[in-house]
Amino acid sequence: MVKPKALIVAPSFQSFILQDLKALSEKYDLTINHYNWKKKELAPIYLIRQFFHLLVNVPQSRFIIIHFGGYWSFFPTLLGKVFGKPSYIILHGTDCASIPELNYGSLRIPLLKFFCKFSYDWATLLLPVSSSLVRHSNEFYRQTPPLSSGFAHHFPELKTPYQIIPNGFEVEFWKTPSGNQRKEGSFLAVLSAEQYILKGVDLIVELAKRFPENTFKIAGFDKPIRQQNPSPNLEFLGKLSPSAMRSAYQQSSFYFQLSVFEGFGCALCEAMLSGCIPIVSSVNELPHIVGNFGYILGKRDSNQLEKIIRKALSSPPSAEDRIAVRQRIESLFPFEYRKKRLLEVLPK
């Protein structure tokens, strides 16, 4: 039986995008459009190349799926309307945010915001991974004014319908084997070098000084230049493979997600599936993911965070606590649920 063709536009291939591709390939014959859009000086060339690639492939496709709004979503949604092909933009976070002081968010750049605006307007359906990407406001980072985000906040006249489909996870991959030796009182965070303030590395650096008897690890990048003399109990692990990342989760007692903004929190869910007790900021979807199974920091304040750490260390989590943390993610975000929801909205 011949599979119907589908066109996928992706600027990058994070694990959550690869999962979607694997699931969709079971039912559709996928054509993938990808360029290295991080090379901004080449964006005009990529747009020309993309236009002609799409001109050939859009008419042959049943539909178009675009990961993230950006320069790369403009022509797919435009040609989707021209050729009568439905287009879907999966919104992940940065495409719904503008935080100029932290150099974060696609919508802080006027030209990129222009491309996103028309892409979102021309799309058949928007598929944000969390409700906070529709409209959200919080005072974690600043109080006057609060930090507001979401495509409905930035584009209040937008009429395109949307449907929230959360990220999902292969729960068995992150399962901790019995007899695992976890170091109590150890802390882990996962982020990239560009997210130093955005995800609270400065807070973790300060904590390491205040808790010299505990260990703090940061995965995702090597020791930054600004950290010439980090505390001896603070270690930068660099980029890790999925299996090495799983091992790092399984060795850690607590997991930090101290973000100023977080579209969803994939690493948080992986850590919880691995039995880590979460300590998160009160932004976006993070409090909902954690529920009553972790700690929530209400303000971006190192003294408040210190109080939370002392409370967490004074009552070490039990094996039952770690099982409960894992079961929360198992029940809320299994990948099979995302796969089912995604296939339901696509043309049959």
From TrEMBL:
MF annotations from Gene Ontology: glycosyltransferase activity
Keyword Glycosyltransferase: yes
CDD domains in the cross-refs: GT4_PimA-like (cd03801)
Keywords from the named record: Glycosyltransferase, Transferase
Start and end residues of each Glycosyl transferase family domain: 180-321
Pfam family, one: Glycos_transf_1
Keyword presence, Glycosyltransferase: yes
InterPro entries listed in its UniProt record: Glyco_trans_1 (IPR001296)
Family: Belongs to the glycosyltransferase group 1 family. Glycosyltransferase 4 subfamily.
Protein name, per record: Glycosyltransferase
Annotated organism of origin: Arthrospiribacter ruber
